[in-house]
Write a structure and sequence with these properties.
By secondary structure, this protein is mainly α. The chain has helices at 3-35, 41-61, 72-95, 98-106, 108-120, 126-143, 151-177, 182-209, 220-246, 249-270, 277-320, 322-327, and strands spanning 332-334, 340-342. The chain contains twelve helices and two strands, in the order H-H-H-H-H-H-H-H-H-H-H-H-E-E.
Length: 355
């Protein structure tokens, strides 16, 4: 099996794990919040991250992956930013209508595209933009009902969108810049995310629910679903970093909207949630957008691979001709001690952060 085939299998596995684990945790949390009345979402998320870190620490002790320390300031900033983005999304849901909150989530894709275009010079073809438009239209039809606006809710939503986009772009760029795996990045950033939410969670949940998480009556059923949710979250957190690392922040958001459609469908089938023609039409349009997006991404990936394979022989040929090599800025220099060094092109910029 070639490296390309292994990479594709790994990507498919990561996408599948992300979908299954995310839909499972939504169903579990829905039972916990709606049925059992445990409405402390931010605090629950801090517990998720704490359990994830403990699980990864056990995995490290069992030598299932290698610990690779890197820039501590980058890890701390990334972890805290991730925690803040989760808290802002919860606040956005609390201070806005459900419809406006869904619009906030839809805005993450165009915002991510805009940021990657402006700051990373990443190009998105017209075909990709068209497929994303179809996807967003479909999810909007299926999920957006009312759009009640208020100043505080709008500001919180704007901050939630920006922090979420930056955090997901950083997830991709940090893995590539420091050459760390998704597991290594998650292990090092998890404590900062958990501490951020563990400190602010009870306050935010109290603000949104007017209840105290520590005064809640924890029955055996509630504890069971909390433990189950925390265990599933290990897979959710791991697959999130894995998908963004193997694909891109935009693809992860597309996958997120697929999960939304699946949750709507599962809610109707399993929980008998209300379902109407708008939900059906929106899901169908969104699925079409996802299929078109996947098709165009696959075509563009194949084109890039073929271009790379055709450029390699040309580069090797140019290395044999000193004149061509000098013109390309890769001439061979001597340091005076008999050791030859390759001169880097003078126009070559640092592209470590390019997604």
């Amino acid at each position: 099996m070639s490296e390309g085939q292994k990479f594709q299998l790994g990507t498919i596995g990561a996408l599948s794990l992300s979908v299954v684990s995310s839909v499972s945790i939504v169903i579990c949390n829905k039972a916990l919040i709606s049925t059992l009345g445990f409405t402390f979402a931010t605090t629950l998320t801090s517990w998720h991250l704490l359990v994830t870190f403990c699980s990864l620490h056990v995995a490290l002790w069992m030598k299932m992956f290698e610990h690779k320390p890197f820039d501590p300031r980058a890890v701390m900033g990334f972890g805290i930013l991730n925690g803040i983005s989760i808290g802002l999304l919860n606040l956005s849901l609390g201070f806005n209508s459900v419809g406006f909150y869904q619009m906030t989530k839809l805005a993450i894709i165009p915002c991510t595209v805009l940021l990657e275009t402006l700051f990373f010079r990443k190009k998105f073809s017209r075909k990709i933009q068209f497929s994303l438009t179809i996807l967003l239209l479909g999810v909007g039809i299926a999920t957006v009902t009312d759009l009640q606006l208020n100043m505080l809710g709008s500001v919180l939503s704007l901050l939630a969108v920006i922090t979420t986009c930056v955090a997901q772009i950083m997830t991709n760029t940090i893995q590539k810049k420091f050459k760390v795996s998704s597991t290594q990045l998650l292990y090092q950033s998890c404590p900062y995310q958990a501490i951020t939410l563990f400190v602010t969670g009870p306050f935010l949940d109290g603000l949104l629910t007017n209840q105290n998480v520590f005064a809640f009556k924890y029955t055996s059923q509630v504890v069971f679903f909390i433990v189950l949710s925390c265990l599933i979250s290990v897979s959710v957190n791991f697959s999130t970093f894995l998908v963004i690392g193997k694909t891109s922040p935009v693809t992860y958001q597309v996958l997120g909207h697929l999960k939304t459609c699946l949750v709507l469908a599962f809610g109707y089938v399993l929980l008998k949630d209300p379902f109407n023609w708008r939900n059906i039409l929106g899901i169908m349009v969104a699925v079409i957008g996802m299929v078109v997006y996947s098709y165009f991404c696959s075509i563009e990936t194949q084109q890039k691979a073929s271009e790379t394979s055709t450029q390699l022989p040309q580069m090797k040929e140019s290395e044999k001709d000193p004149l061509i090599a000098v013109e390309n800025g890769s001439g061979v220099l001597s340091d005076g001690g008999g050791v030859q060094k390759t001169a880097a092109p003078v126009w070559n910029s640092n592209k470590d952060f390019q997604a």
